[in-house]
């Protein structure tokens, strides 16, 4: 694991000293400390730490307000609340602020250090997922089409756009759960979906329910196979799929993503264009 740089934010010189001694003794780099919101913002801006330990009570602000201020400078900064108080209300507020963890004073050295290592490992694991997931989903889509239709889609260039998309007629949304949550969207015209269903069911006419069932199962296979490929790369991902949500309508907008990472591509198939979009969130960390 890379060297981990930490800034300690606490208005108590005693607490700063105690935390600093613990962290240094366990091999972490304490780049600096801060005793107020203003000092914390300056320290984060200047020192660019990997993690900030944050007391809940400081002059003129609490730990949640201070976290919001430093996140304005560094949106993905990891923050650990270190406080003598740790009741349900504080935990709830911390979760809403996407705090990475909580440790109660007096600090247990082992608990704090294991928490830091877990958070940073999570970050590295997410970066690993970020480098793998697009190819895994593309391979799963290509393999599924090849096995069902004996043809491989012609993929256009990968895109990482977060712009809102308008559905081509039918969207299948597959939720993905596990170490990190995400979702896959397969979108196509109603005609393309109908022709796929006719081909697989070997029927001249198909009902809307039959189309929905076919496209839902194809999407489930694509997402499930992709998750299996990723889990083989690293079992810590623990990814699995949730049941599909299927929406009809050419004027329906595919929501602008709020995921931390997203990739998409258009694929030309024998049945028409299929747009696929997949992405993941880091989670509360």
From TrEMBL:
The Response regulatory domain sits at: 5-120
Query: By its UniProt entry, which CDD domains does this protein fall under?
Result: CheX (cd17906)
Q: Which residues carry this modification: 4-aspartylphosphate?
A: 55
Keyword Phosphoprotein attributed: yes
Which UniProt keywords are listed?
Chemotaxis, Phosphoprotein
Lineage, top-rank taxon, reads Bacteria
| PANTHER family assigned to the protein according to its UniProt record, in alphabetical order | RESPONSE REGULATORY DOMAIN-CONTAINING PROTEIN, STRESS RESPONSE REGULATOR PROTEIN 1
Function recorded in the entry: May play the central regulatory role in sporulation. It may be an element of the effector pathway responsible for the activation of sporulation genes in response to nutritional stress. Spo0A may act in concert with spo0H (a sigma factor) to control the expression of some genes that are critical to the sporulation process.
User: What's the name of the protein?
Assistant: Stage 0 sporulation protein A homolog
